[in-house]
Amino acid sequence: MSGSRRPLAKVGVLLSGRGSNFVALQEAMLAGEVPAEIVLVASNLPSAAGLAKARDYGLPTLGLSHRGMSRQEHEEKLIAALRAAGVGWVCLAGYMRLLSPRFVQAFPQRVLNIHPSLLPSFPGLDAQQQAWDHGVRVSGCTVHLVDEGLDSGPIVVQRVVAIDDARHPDEVAARILAEEHLAYPAALRYLLMQSWRLEGRRVVASSPEAVSKKPEKKP
Question: Do 182 and 214 touch, CB atoms closer than 8 A?
Answer without folding.
Answer: yes
